[in-house]
């Protein structure tokens, strides 16, 4: 059984610990929440629990569908064991419906279905506030090789198609979501998390927001929204 060891570092949403296996790390999900590049901060009761459980369910399901991820196993209500990754500093955002920054940039009314899904890339760099970049920027900054980007794009399209259908069956519209990838023993794996923190989920009938936008926009009912997503993934409606 894998043992939790020394604390490594803390991010906005998670704490990372070493384990007695150099190829694995221990992740603890936090209740703290941030938005608008850290300008807004707060606590969402139970967020760590919900995001850990939701991510575990989705990672395991994607693995069954042939998408390699860093997920190994749950280690508690708020903790999981994952493969140690060398993170590729390119965040991938898949968009199916106009919302958030895309609505503002392209002048599209929020909720407008896109004629075809869109992939966007962002430089994972806090000092630069994660600017949007393209593949020319990625190449000149040597953030990822062309071969790695080919794999990332292929996987992102596959994940979008899989999850869009999966959530549709749960009565949820997958509006958009962020993905991160990393290298583990030479292989590109899906990492980070898939949760209401990193996805926009709307109820298919009411269009009610079931994600972190409730925190960003002071809509209230944040914990209830996270709980609803987990409930639906477990089969409830």
TrEMBL record:
<comment type="similarity">
    <text>Belongs to the SAICAR synthetase family.</text>
</comment>
<protein>
    <recommendedName>
        <fullName>Phosphoribosylaminoimidazole-succinocarboxamide synthase</fullName>
        <ecNumber>6.3.2.6</ecNumber>
    </recommendedName>
</protein>
<dbReference type="Pfam" id="PF01259">
    <property type="entry name" value="SAICAR_synt"/>
</dbReference>
<dbReference type="InterPro" id="IPR018236">
    <property type="entry name" value="SAICAR_synthetase_CS"/>
</dbReference>
<comment type="pathway">
    <text>Purine metabolism; IMP biosynthesis via de novo pathway; 5-amino-1-(5-phospho-D-ribosyl)imidazole-4-carboxamide from 5-amino-1-(5-phospho-D-ribosyl)imidazole-4-carboxylate: step 1/2.</text>
</comment>
<dbReference type="InterPro" id="IPR033934">
    <property type="entry name" value="SAICAR_synt_PurC"/>
</dbReference>
<dbReference type="GO" id="GO:0006189">
    <property type="term" value="P:'de novo' IMP biosynthetic process"/>
</dbReference>
<keyword id="KW-0436">Ligase</keyword>
<keyword id="KW-0547">Nucleotide-binding</keyword>
<dbReference type="GO" id="GO:0009236">
    <property type="term" value="P:cobalamin biosynthetic process"/>
</dbReference>
<dbReference type="InterPro" id="IPR050089">
    <property type="entry name" value="SAICAR_synthetase"/>
</dbReference>
<keyword id="KW-0658">Purine biosynthesis</keyword>
<keyword id="KW-0067">ATP-binding</keyword>
<feature type="domain" description="SAICAR synthetase/ADE2 N-terminal">
    <location>
        <begin position="8"/>
        <end position="232"/>
    </location>
</feature>
<dbReference type="GO" id="GO:0004639">
    <property type="term" value="F:phosphoribosylaminoimidazolesuccinocarboxamide synthase activity"/>
</dbReference>
<dbReference type="InterPro" id="IPR028923">
    <property type="entry name" value="SAICAR_synt/ADE2_N"/>
</dbReference>
<dbReference type="GO" id="GO:0005524">
    <property type="term" value="F:ATP binding"/>
</dbReference>
<dbReference type="InterPro" id="IPR001636">
    <property type="entry name" value="SAICAR_synth"/>
</dbReference>
């Amino acid at each position: 059984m894998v043992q939790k060891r020394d604390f490594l570092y803390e991010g906005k949403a998670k704490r990372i610990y070493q384990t007695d296996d150099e190829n694995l790390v221990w992740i603890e999900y936090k209740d703290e929440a941030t938005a608008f590049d850290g300008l807004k901060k707060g606590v969402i009761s139970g967020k760590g629990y919900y995001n850990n459980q939701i991510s575990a369910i989705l990672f395991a399901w994607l693995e069954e569908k042939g998408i390699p991820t860093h997920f190994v196993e749950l280690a508690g209500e708020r903790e999981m064991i994952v493969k140690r990754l060398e993170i590729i500093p390119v965040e991938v955002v898949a968009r199916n419906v106009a919302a958030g920054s895309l609505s503002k940039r392209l002048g599209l009314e929020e909720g407008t279905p896109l004629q075809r899904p869109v992939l966007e890339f962002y430089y994972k760099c806090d000092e630069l506030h994660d600017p949007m970049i393209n593949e020319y920027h990625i190449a000149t900054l040597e953030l990822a090789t062309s071969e790695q980007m080919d794999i990332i794009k292929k996987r992102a399209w596959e994940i979008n198609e899989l999850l869009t259908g999966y959530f549709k069956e749960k009565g949820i519209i997958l509006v958009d979501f962020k993905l991160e990838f990393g290298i583990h023993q030479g292989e590109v794996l899906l990492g980070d998390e898939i949760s209401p923190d990193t996805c926009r989920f709307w109820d298919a009938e009411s269009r009610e927001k079931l994600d972190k936008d409730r925190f960003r926009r002071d809509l209230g009912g944040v914990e209830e929204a996270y709980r609803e997503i987990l409930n639906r993934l477990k089969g409830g409606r």
